[in-house]
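Practice problem. Given the sequence and the SMILES for AOF, write out the predicted structure.
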Amino acid sequence: MPPAHPPPCGVAPAAAATCPLFLLPRRSRSLRLRLRRLALPAPRAATHAHDAVLLRRAADAADRSAGLTSPHPNFGCVIARPQLETDNAEAWVVGEGFLYAQGTPCAELLAAQEAGEHARGATAYLNLEPGDCYGDSTAVSTLVQAGITRVVVGLRHPLKHLRGKAIQSLRNEGIQVDVVGEDLHSKLFKEALESCLIVNAPLLYRAAFRVPFSVLKYAMTADAEQKYPTMLYWKLAGKIAASSGHASWVSGKSSRGRVFELRGRSDAIIVGGNTVRLDDPRLTARHVKGHVPVRIVMSQSLNLPEEANLWNVHDAYTIVATQRGARRDLQKKLALKGVEVVEFDMLNPRDVMSYCYDRGYLSVLWECGGTLAASAISASVIHKVYAFLAPKIIGGVNAPTPVGELGMNQMTQAIDLIDVSYEQIDRDMLMSGFIQPIPDLSPVIPSVDEIPSVDPEVSPYETNIISFYKTWDTFGAFSNFSPHPIHMPDENGDYFTWPTVEHYYQAHKFIGVDDPQAREIVQEIKLAKSPEEAARIGRTRQREFQELVCLNVLVTSIFACYSRK
Ligand SMILES: Nc1c(N[C@@H]2O[C@H](COP(=O)(O)O)[C@@H](O)[C@H]2O)[nH]c(=O)[nH]c1=O
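Answer key:
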């Protein structure tokens, strides 16, 4: 496919003189010389301003999978080469790409494929250092083979077992690598760097704090209350529901649409038991083809209804986190519905977040009531707040507010949000800000011999359990989702190359079943764009066509997983 971008620079304008000079009369010779000089100006070099524009574009490209697939490290790659005809850096782009999902082609490969021959001698702009790992060096080798001569990197990879490796490999191949903040110091990069930080904020928080990036979201009215009865001093004390607990709806349709987007960007959504009892929520992202986050209920007492929307795991997977030993009868009923019940010795936000960290979660959205919100803030596991303010008054002394008791009795103790932004959404106002700034991991620059092959903080000898939910995490090479195709024989002995182990596993729930519907599902799974989509298709079809599922696959798969761990 011809690239959708202009031809490379160095192609002198056709106007350039073609007739040999010595054949021309003297007067026109000097004019021709001047014309030729005009026609062949010195090749343009990218300035910091150009680099900043193109790096920002790479960060924007990195964000394009948001909501379509589960949160993963976001990589964007823009390949550009200065054009003589224009100073507009956007017009220099000859190829770009972004990582769609775990186990799919990397951004660098997609950008180089689009650029084709125009990548030779060009510059590649990366929001994040390539995540090549476990012997897979696709990103680096692609840039080398494409003939890229310079790479501009927004951020070093924040995961210790990957940090610095790709940059070093590129430099070992003689490619100039300029890292913002190390080799590029101009203020012109401020905005581009912020874009690189924002698009991978979840990965940075996870790497720095070893918990998922947690966002607290609430919608509240514009109620106010007198600080003291005798004084005229009122303060905003928004309500998230009426005194009766009724809450549909505080914010408008467009604001709730924004919440669906936020859910689509999250690995999990967390509510407390009270929210389940009062709202019976579904907590789905509401878009058909997009990512379906897990729903987590935190309930110490397990005082939960036997029937609830959240127990319908056809919508989405549900986990109930509870205190060890709570209501074993209800635990069994929930497990029979397909709900995963996880017991904690002492149920608290930090331990639940550590559990989510182990499951590889990058982003979690807290849509809980005030009591749990206060507990999560006090445990310092909330990093950002999205507050939707609706122009409504509901009143009610006992009507619930967004955040419960934080133990602060002086206004000077209030938590000041940082990097606050305001946005009007129809009649509502969305205010969002960080409770903790995005961690700056840049000082940790490992030297070549310090680059460990595995994250030193997770020694396999400290524990006999290692988790590999996510391909990019320390032991991700074991994940079914890792981008390692497998070449396997089918029941007739014919071989087929499955894109990932997950594709193979999900399809084998239906292979061997003599039914056209089963064969159609197998085909659908074979063509899935990513292991995550193969998993989504397999699980959905398994629920829809339970009679077609061959149980022995499920049994052997459980055995295989445990034996492998
Ligand atoms: N009432 C209210 C919210 N309520 C939150 O949304 C949950 C309901 O989600 P779902 O069942 O998926 O529609 C509910 O349990 C509570 O966490 N959210 C908002 O953005 N705006 C609103 O006005």
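Check your answer against the key. Residues 1-19, 451-456, 458-462, 558-565 have pLDDT under 50 and may be disordered.
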